[in-house]
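Work package 3, deliverable 3.1, input record:
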Amino acid sequence: MRFEIPSALLSKRTKVRLSWLWFPLVALAALAWAAGPLIQGDKLDNTDTQAIMKANFLFHFSASNEWPAETKTGPFRMAVVGNERLFQELIDKYALKSIGVQPLEIVSFDTDNDMQEEGFFHLIYSESAGAELEELASQWKGQPVLLVTDTESALERGSLINFVAVDRRLRYEINAKEASKKGVLIGSRILSWAVNSGK
Amino acid sequence: MKQGMFQVQCGRWALVFVLSLGITQASFGQAVVERAMAFGQAGDWDEALQTLLPQMTTTALQSDAHSWYVLGFIQKELYKTTERNDADSPFRLEAVSSLQRAWELGPSRDDATSIKAALDFLTRSYLLDAIDRVDGFTMDSDGEVLALFGRYEALVKTMDPTADVSVQKADVYRYLGLANGQLINGLEGAQLEEEQTLFDRSVSHYEAALKLTPGNYSGLYNLAITQYNQGVRQLKRIDHETSMFELMEIQDTCVALFEQALSPMESAHKLKPERFETLKGLMTIHYALNQPEASERYRRMLDGLNGKGR
């Protein structure tokens, strides 16, 4: 719609000048409105949601289970294999915490083999599957090491706790008997939230 | 006979008197309007208003479209010069009212064009104010923005009852959704109540926008992002003090939010199947919902897009 200043109220010169001003103003406003956001849209939060959940579960697995007395000296050692983001999450939120009287030490490895010369770990989280997982489990056979995994049929291959998806949620299954044989006593709180602790 | 003649004579004089009075009043009214216009021409809008406004109650001016138009114009100029930054500017409201009155009274063709132009300017000024308020948005100013847009909408419909402003209205709602979402990011510490309020408002604005323009990609995408990010926000609160019970509760809350985010993200994806952001969104939401196969499917589609150099 054309904007017009009534000639009765303004001199001819003013009328012309204001007409010139009005058009760009309207055009600019229309452009600003149509061309896009005046404020930027929210960006997708790239935080690794699984890493947050797993890290807290691992902390609970460390704090709520019982290891043999001979492993209660020095730091409580946790190894994370093949998951750098999980390791970072653990470092960010749990690195300075203690498990009982033991300071928590968290170490990251690219592969299971990298752990071989690194001594004993109370808890190992590995993303290995199949034969690799079986090999890892056999390396720590008879030792009170809580092997935690996130792969199908992991309990049959020597894992003691395995993450599973249930109703779109991250839960875990436990091989409590095997853990007990190795000297790791699974705490009742951990057992109570497991989806399958009967094995 | 003489008495009859006298009565007729008296009647004539009365008619002349009434006509003269009317002409005098009309002339006086016209003179007042012209004087006010002269002040206006000189840029003295205050004096123009003081000259005209008190006379608007007189019979001659009350029903004169031109007088109401001049008054409305003066009030509009006063709004521009003294109340431009006042969203509730009384001069603007009065100008609208005077110009609408002028319109109803049936103005001349010249005046009608100018009245429409003046009303158009004032109408747009409400829209510009609404935009301005969204741009510098602060908590709880949703109502102010919507009220300004409401005035814009009402005025547009006064001038053209068939006008449709639903697209612009959806834009306003969408911007309000964004603005509330951005305020959440600026919250410091654990202001959980404020966060929930802002989140609820953000979602409700997006939903209002989508009701008006259901197939709007930005509305769908931003709604999904808002819901997903709110879930991640809850997860980030997990730390060494979080009990297993709390962890499960937080997870339930997050899964509910992620599930809510999935539907609008899928709808956005249907609208633009090769849009990078949406594919990444779907990959991420499915990952958060512990659905690795679905997440992987979208990751492969993303790889395909990257392969095409997009």
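The beta strands of chain A are 76-81, 98-99, 102-109, 123-126, 146-149, 161-166, 169-174.
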